[in-house]
Amino acid sequence: MKFLRGACKYDGECHAVNSVWHHAACHWLKCTMTRKATSISFNIDSVEQECNYKGKCYKAGDKVKEGCSSKQCIIDKEKKVAYMSTVAGECAYNGKCYKAGDRVTEGCYTKQCFFDIEKRVTYMNIVDGGCKFNGKCMGVNMTWNSGCTEYTCRWYKNGFRHVFKQEVKQQKCRFQNDCVEEGAWRKYGCVDYECSIKTTDKAQYASMNPVTYACKDKNGNCLAINEEIEEDCSLYRCESQANSKFPQLERVGGGCKVNGVCKDENSVWTEESSCIDYMCEREKRSGNTIYMVQRPVKVGCRHDGVCRYNGEKWPLANRPCFQVECTVTNTPGSPHDFKRLLKTSPSGCVVNGICREYGYTNYVGCIQYKCQWDELRRMATYKYVKGGCKEYTTSNCHDVDAEWTEPYGKTTCLKMKCKKSGNSFTYDVGYLCQDADGYCVNPGQKFEALGYNGQRRTNCYCKQTGSHVSTVCSASHNY
User: Fold this and answer.
1) Helix or strand or coil: residue 337?
2) N or C: lower Cβ tally within 10 Å for the chain?
3) Per-domain residue ranges for the chain?
4) So which domain of life are we looking at (predicted)?
5) Does the model's pTM come out above 0.70?
């Protein structure tokens, strides 16, 4: 078979030998044929290539100035590529161009312009720096103090990444105006504190932590927990608190201080100026605190320099048969919640120049008088209560309507009955016989009578004649 003609196929189209066509921006291709003894081949060769840069074609060797750099078109025939390469570069930084080797200091950092010949690029990189602290730049590895912290400046590099870090070299605790090393103890008041340093991934924290606790008395002395002390009539104990680490000095007992004198618990004393008896008592108000209070337990009235108490009565010195009484009532809102009143009143009756108390009774003959309070007249009166009749032969008294007998002579008895007539008292009188032993005998009764010679006579009886009686014996003698 005889070869007649051929072509190069590219992107689905046939291109004749020696024809040239546009392949891409700034790139042309050509179809070539190679004849050998036994074969024929068709090749596509790059016959002309330019650099495509921002939509424009540049021939080999053409240069373009852009910003702080100069670029040149390079054709690599072996690799069949075209590209723009930086041939003379400067660093663009903050709107300015810097040549290779130029340095710029900004804040605590110094940057230098570099040109990488192999990569054909320029860049700014940090070549020196430090840590900024309170507006000052601290150099790398420099140390300084702020408060109780010692710092140093470290420089960490990772390629183009640079970190200047302020790190704590040594941390101490602040205690008042002093810096304390870790583990050291200091005392403030009655509490011991220890310096503790806590380290985390981000920082170190220093704190003075309380480790031992005590209570302080009014003189500034420290008391251990459960230790007791007496001050101003009170007993105090250093006690732990449920809601606090710090113990408190609690009042647990003691007494009351009155006018500079200590009064024991539960003791009672009288304040003469006010006539009030006080007791020293324990009062628990809140928590474990004990309060000692003086509480009035008895209130009286002061009269003529003497304290008198509720219900007490005493005579009025300048007024016979008159008394003064102290009355105390519980009245909230009054001083000490008590109200006191001195009340004057009659205490009895004056009888024959002598003051007699209420209830006093006396007899004048058989008339009884009594000292008593007249509510209507509001005064004490000594007046008649009751009367009676006096026996004829004795001083014995008998009430009204009372009946009695009494010997009258040696042979007769009187039978009496007391009567009241107006304001006087009289008798109803009757007669009875009298036996040998002096006993009275009713009319009609038999008995032994006493003769004139003093001898006893039997077989006698009492005979009544009208209102009179007579003794009749067996010998018919009348007595």
Assistant:
1) helix
2) N
3) 394-479
4) Eukaryota
5) no
